[in-house]
């Protein structure tokens, strides 16, 4: 362990010992990444003829009903405890003892750190791309919503203008019918006042004209049909002061 730490420090990297999840861990800080590692020794499981006499601890030290004991094997391995990556994360005694693999182990730590840094950068890039696409989608949805609102407003304005023109045409037809029947449409006469009123209603509907004031604009203080139900009491049907078509 001392030899591996020395190689890591000689390469310009730092080490630290920290407690995480109530466990003491050794960390090598390489290229901004943390490599948590430790030395693990494999143990030997040896069956014994008869379980030792004693308390509960001795009785539970069995394997498949057979009493066993564990002994150190002397075979060590350097293990990286990080859970990411697919590169090699364990070096063990074999044809070469760990003492002869220290340079390879240190190089493996560097490869793991670089791979982790690349993965982190890719993850950050993907997240930024997702955020960019989300912003673009939100902007696009805002533009679509605004465009739909403009189209809807255009349709409503066109419908109101068309309705206003229809009312004006109807008022003109009423005036012509009244003239043919000799009925007065001068201001102050019932039909004359209606003609003025109808013209004002046409102007109120026309989006190209300034809307004249009307009693309809006043807030109704009393209503049997509250507006929050989405319905208001309808106005009574309009009747002409004098039916023109009945006049002789």
Brief write-up:
With about 250 residues, the protein is of the alpha+beta class.
Give a structural overview:
There is one protein chain. The chain has two domains: 2-126, no CATH class; 157-246, no CATH class. Strands 1, 2, 3, 4, 5 and 6 form a six-stranded antiparallel β-sheet that branches. The protein has helices at 2-10, 56-60, 102-180, 190-205, and strands at 14-20, 23-30, 33-47, 62-63, 66-80, 90-92. Strand 1 and strand 2 (23-30) form a beta hairpin. The chain is an alpha+beta fold. 8% of the residues are buried. It is rod-shaped and about 130 Å long. Helix 1 (2-10) packs across helix 3 and helix 3 runs antiparallel to helix 4. The chain contains four helices and six strands.
